[in-house]
Write a structure and sequence with these properties.
By secondary structure, the protein is mostly helical. The protein has one domain.
């Protein structure tokens, strides 16, 4: 997935990267989430008061407790290592992480370019739906439905 490749290499067109490339001016540097800080990948995806809070709801849904690390690749490693053991569990956690990052990016772009804003809970719901769809595509033999996924996803997968 090109998006994740760019994310890990800090090549997404976040405002700090656009300033460095002289695409936008320094006055446009603030995060679209309204946190008052310069928009960097780490700030946007992990530490912004708005977008970073999505992780709180994902952790709560998963019934786990993690600390948002400072940089995106470290966060990925921490998040996906929660499935130590079965390769399938790690793959499921990776899919959930990718879906979360993708939906944060999509919401950021909707706010920035279209002036449309979803509630954080709506974004979280979209993450759950997207992750379920990607999981069912990758693991067609999974025997649970969307309702089960939303209610006790990690219990039925043996993660939580």
């Amino acid at each position: 997935m090109l998006f994740v490749w760019c994310l890990f290499r800090d090549r997404l067109p976040t405002k700090d990267n656009l300033i460095r490339r002289c695409v936008i001016d320094h006055e446009s540097r603030l995060c679209v989430g309204g946190c008052g800080y310069e928009e960097t990948s780490s700030r946007l995806f992990l530490h912004c008061n708005i977008f970073g809070s999505i992780w709180h709801f994902i952790y709560r849904w998963m019934r786990i407790s993690l600390v948002n690390l400072m940089v995106v690749p470290d966060h990925f490693n921490q998040f996906t290592s929660g499935g130590v053991g079965a390769k399938a569990r790690q793959s499921i956690l990776q899919i959930l992480w990718f879906a979360t990052m993708w939906k944060i990016w999509k919401e950021r772009n909707n706010r920035l370019f279209k002036g449309k804003e979803c509630t954080i809970m709506h974004v979280v719901d979209r993450i759950k739906s997207l992750a379920f769809m990607w999981l069912k595509t990758k693991f067609a033999s999974l025997s649970f439905n969307l309702h089960d996924w939303w209610q006790s996803s990690f219990t039925i997968l043996g993660i939580g």
